[in-house]
Structure formats: C-alpha cells, structure tokens
Amino acid sequence: MAMSNLQREEQIRYENYLDDLLYKAMEALRTPEKLGLNLNGEFVRLFPNPVFAGNHIKKIEYKPTQAVQLPDELFERLCILEDEIDSHAPKAKKDKPTKERKTAKYNPEDIVKWIEMREKGFSYGQIAKQFGANQSTVSNYIRKHYKRIGTVAN
What we know:
By secondary structure, the protein is α+β, with helices and mostly antiparallel strands. It has two domains: 84 residues, no CATH class; 42 residues.
C-alpha cells in the first residue's frame, strides 16, 4: 500500500524531529566532563548523560559511564541513519590482495644519499628501486629538501 503525499510529509517531519533530537543528544555528549568523588573519597571522571522525558531532553546528569540509553524511537532512528551511511560508504575491495606498506620513515642519511644520487643523474625510479621505496616518495623528499634550501629540484 503506497503512502499518500500527506502521510509521506508527516513521516518526513517526524524523521526530521527525531534527527534534531539525536543531534541535541550528541551535542549534550560533547559537554565537558567533570570530576567527582566516589564513596572512597577518590576522584572519578563524570561524563554528561542526557536524560530523556518522552522524546525530549529534560536535563543532563553526570555519571561515571559514557553509555547513554536512548528512547526506543531514537535508537531505531539512529540505526536507520547508520545503515544509510554505511550503504553510501565505499566498499572495500575484497578480491584484490592488499600490498604491505612500509610504515618506517626514511632516515636523514638515506635522504642525503637520494639527493647525491639524483645530482649524479640517477632517475627517481632508479633511486627508489635501490632503497625499496616508492618513486613518488623519493621525489617528494628530494623536492622538499630543495624547497627548504631555496633551490629547484632537477
């Protein structure tokens, strides 16, 4: 059974109302935390926790947990929004094996050697191959070096 235009408009208004309420709840969670004392006299961190009365935020209490209990309608709307976001997010390619990337940065001695090799006429590709680096990485490091000293890379 199809919705009439009036029903659809009413549904959209209600979804917008729930979205606004979720936004207000998220803003409340960004309120700075406070310090409190527990029964043993120890300091504890207290986190903002919006208190809902029906479908509106009545007040903000501070509790030692960051968990928030949303009213059922808000929780359902949050799930719907997350599903919509996930459906628009780019999918990871599972068929293609991923390359392992080096996470280590290159030490200054390597960069000096790259610059010397480049000045001797080696190409970025030849330098990169010798050091197991990417050609654009070598090019970027050399270009940044020349930019720092105020000359142009060849």
